[in-house]
Amino acid sequence: MKILLIRLRLIGDVVFTTPIPRALKRRWPDAKISYLVEDPAAPVLAGNALIDELIVVKRRRGWRRLQDDLALAARLRRNRYDIVLDLHGGPRSSWLTLATGASQRIGYAVPGRGWMYTATVARPRELRARHSVVNQWDLLQAIRSPLTRERNRPEWPDADPTGDAVEMPLDAHADARIERRLREAGVGFDDEVIVAHVSAGNPFRRWPEPAFIALLTGLAHGGARRRIIVSSGPSDRDAARRITAAARQHLPDGAGRIVEFGEFDLAELRALIGRSRVFIGGDTGPLHVAATTKTPVVGLYGPTLPARSAPWRDVTIPTWSLEVAGLPCRPCEQRVCAPGDFRCLTSLRPEDVITAAEQALRWRP
How far apart are CA 197 and CA 216, in angstroms? Predict the structure, then answer.
């Protein structure tokens, strides 16, 4: 039996789908699972032993994308999949699902695209306090058993964060590079490494720079062996440099405690977080990469809800999900800030984040 999973676009969304291959292999151990993903998120799935074939497509525009998709559609149709799960639901993924010609094409009941599937699953438009992993899990319920040719659908157990945690395999080469770079940066084996991710994909999820400066300063003052590494997305490199420089000015030995580490790719980020004592950041891709490790996470939630996107993993690994409760504008669609001041994040106090991070640093696995 051949199964294709499709999830395009964002890193965090791809992380949320990683329990699905495990569930499918438990039900059908001999099934061949292929996964179609765009190149920015491909490192999340690279090396996953449950995925037999990783199909990586570029995120291009215009006629080049049309050219890519036509060639890809022909390739997918030749593969003759039995089941295709569209875990995305966008125009591109639904069209590629249709192009496979699979006897079971399962996706969300999105207006205007439901006809492309042989079975659909409801996806309410409102922002429910329901985890994204569970929303993806719904698609399993629509599968008919292709082995028995029966029309009934097999029963699937509820998704469980301990038994069906999100995952991103550790890249041994990336881990070796990070080990070397930590050593070259003067970070010792006994140092407490803290990773603070200071950027986000949009302004609605970006904690203010002064708050991050206060956070780094407070944590650095808490111990001589602490080494704080600031990470950011490519578009926020300047912000990361400003935050780092400002925090160092508040420390007599800031150059030692707040480490200049340079840039690193997604596989290296996962390795770095795995070697750290705590990860701190907003509801973005790096936080979800952190969820695939055994490192405590302090998540900062503004317009989004922890109930939808908190780390989905073994509940014995500490997670602190900080949010400002009681705001009638939360959650929001992140298109316009109704109050105009992004209060869901600007009201999140650095001292509360420091308290959570200190608790995380005291935890031992």
Answer: 11
The tokens for 10 are 């964002």
Structural domains of the chain sorted by starting position, each given as residue range(s) with its CATH number in brackets: 2-142 (3.40.50.2000), 172-362 (3.40.50.2000)
Q: Which residues contact residue 364 at a Cβ distance below 8 angstroms, ignoring those fewer than 6 apart?
A: none
pTM of the model: 0.93
d(CA 148, CA 1): 12
For residues 322 and 305, give the distance between their C-alpha atoms in angstroms, rounded to a whole number: 10
Helix (H) or strand (E) holding 195: strand 192-197
> Please, are residues 106 and 94 in contact by the beta-carbon 8 Å criterion?
no
Burial of 115 (0-12, 13-18, 19+ CB in 10 A): exposed
Q: What is the pLDDT along the chain (365 residues), one digit of tens a residue?
A: 999 999 998 999 999 999 999 999 999 999 999 999 999 999 999 999 999 999 999 877 777 778 888 999 999 999 999 999 999 999 999 999 999 999 999 999 999 999 999 999 998 777 788 999 999 999 999 998 765 555 566 789 999 999 999 999 999 999 999 999 999 999 998 999 999 999 887 888 999 999 999 999 999 999 889 999 999 988 788 899 999 999 998 887 656 789 878 889 999 999 999 999 999 999 999 999 999 999 999 999 999 999 999 999 999 999 999 999 999 999 999 999 999 999 999 999 999 999 999 999 999 88
